Predict the structure.
Amino acid sequence: AFNARRGPQRLAGRTWTPLLAADRYAEPDSNPLESGGTDYVFPHPMPADSAAAARAVKDTPFMDSLTLAFALAGVRTLGLGASNARTDLLAVSLSSTDAVGHKYGPDSKEVHDQILRVDRYLGAFLDSLQAMRGAGRLIGALTADHGVAPYPEWRSSWYANQGAQRVDLQPAWRVVRAAMQAAGVDSSAVASDDGFRVTDVAAFRRAGVDPDAMAALWVRELRRLTGVLRADLLRDLAAADTVQDDVARRWLHMLPVDGPVRAVVTLAPFGYFAGVNYATHGQPHDYDTRVPIIFWGPGIARGARGSSARVVDMAPTLAALLGITPLEPLDGRALPLRP
């Protein structure tokens, strides 16, 4: 029924213009690094063709508006929050900030406008939920999945990214692939996804070669490159002091030690891999890993609490607010949110 409204298609011909007056935005609107060098200046017109508009909407704030409208329709249809005999959980993923951020970068006028708009969308959404179910019956929690790094060539107004550079890893890969060929291992037995990823263990086994030996060669060659902060075997990270070593801890949260990725590379802060032509993330530095956490609703004190909260604290905190005992041990702890 929601799809029958043809919300994305009805955006055909619409134009994304800034929400506020020009003097309310500090960001320049003239950076050709944005959007691959095309369509990087406001206004941003949607395609006139309805099918093309439906494909293009993901890169605009309008996608979040549609997503929240869909969520409200689901609440009404499923009767979420309508019964005093149960607690209902509604999880909504808003992806426009990610898409706009990748396309235009964190220092763009577009990201500024996106945040202004999603703030208003969320306000209308929460107001609508309260109007539907009554005041004091809703607890909200909000976070994000990652941060983002500014373009290395652009001096950021938010981040101290002076000296940031792009790093070409191909010299290290050429050495490794030559060594694999000399040892009789097909070069397609490894891939560069996430690091040194073994895609064909059997190929190494047939040649009598330890994959970790080739991964160690890759690590050694990477450490010679300018712009590489460190390169590590996963087995070495597993032995690190993960309380003090943020980089090791974050890689180990992402990748299993016994998995196909045998080694990883950490670029110097704000570095990009060569060839990446969009704003990106994925490094174990604070700017990529620190995200906001917001709780809102009855029984939650107003005001900021500092930076000691973690994403894994969200589930135990919600459980505590609802008086629910988790059925299994959780990584996090309940945050002190009561007045």
User: Anything to note?
Assistant: The radius of gyration is 24 Å. The mean pLDDT is 95. DSSP finds eleven helices and ten strands in the chain. Residues 109-133 form the longest helix (25 residues).
